[in-house]
Amino acid sequence: MMLRSLLLTASAALAVGACDERSSGDSAAPETASATSPAQSADAATPVRPETRKFRDWLAVCDNGNACSAFGPAANSGGWIRVTLDAGPEARAQVHAGLVDRAAGPEGLTLSVDGQRFALTMESDSVGRIQDPTPGLIDALAKGRRLSLGDDVALSPSGAAAALLWIDERQGRLGTVGALVRRGAKPASTVPAAPALPRVVSAPAVAQTNLPPRTLPAAFEARADVKQCRADTAYSPTFQSNITVDRLAADQELWGVPCFSGAYNFGLRYFVTEPNGANPQPVRFPTSREPADEVVNGEYDPTSRTLTAFNKGRGVGDCGIASVWAWTGRDFALVSESEMRECWGVPADLWPSTWRSR
Q: What is the DSSP letter of 77?
């Protein structure tokens, strides 16, 4: 039950994140999430530690490859802004901004900072981008007092300078010509290279023929963790029967046992077994935090050998944790993970990365 508690705690934090009134000074960072490297297949380089920090209204995240993002919200939840910068001396910043629950007009989106207007290239009807923004735009974001999308969506400037400065410090850019905030005369070549990412190799796909019936064998029913799952889902026999079985190898199977369900999340506990569900061994999935023994909204794809999960912070799916693992032939290795702690309407493909692999 430990990891279910971890997942539910994370979901609760996500759900209240948009209403969080805690604040921090420009150098303080009370909300930090980090972890040692998840277990990976051989040939994995030691990555840096993923980290998430909150600076007043702004959220800043750097992943295990030191790619970093900073997000600012709208005061009325009507929009958001994102600044991203990869690690390494050649990286260039990008700025995204978007509206929530409505499309931009025919003129597109304009970012206004203290009266200066910057046009965005539209990527969808509500999201625009400024690729390789000028230092003047980044300076304006860091020092601005009035930020808005168009004329009616006010963005919070509170914490922007601290979030961008933290990214400079994290990536070793302070005092360089390529710093976001604290630029200096040092050449870009003095910025550290991006750290190597861990390498994950999926096992070859196997045929999914002659799978056993999706009925739990006695070896499962006798386990204490499975008994708990069965008790927790007894209120819904239909959901309780949603057992999954996939073949991992000629002599290995992957079984998924339903363990909980809610309004927009359901959880499965996975086991690697011998043929016909014999000798079940629980799977613990590596994450950027602690390993998880339950997967939220999980689905295994035997063709790609990957298992995906999407732990929603709320029903519309604009916050939460999205994860992908690959079966290596020995275990499930973390391929990618992104997490948006604040429910600000940011689409999932623009969430900050917390873990990447090769």
A: S
Rounded to whole angstroms, the Cα distance separating 345 from 354 reads: 19
71/80 Cα distance (integer angstroms): 7
Distance CA(11)–CA(6), nearest Å, equals: 9
- DSSP assignment of 247-288: EEETTEEEEEEEEEE-SS-EEEEEEEEEGGGEEEEE--B--S
**Tens digits of per-residue pLDDT, 215-265?**
999 999 999 999 999 999 999 999 999 999 999 999 999 999 999 999 999
The structure's pTM equals 0.87
Phi, psi of 277 (to 5 degrees): 75, 15
| Distance (Å) of CA 6 to CA 3, 94, 240, 336 | 5, 33, 22, 19
**pLDDT one-digit tens code per residue, 295-316:** 999 999 999 999 999 999 999 9
Six token digits for residue 200: 């994950």
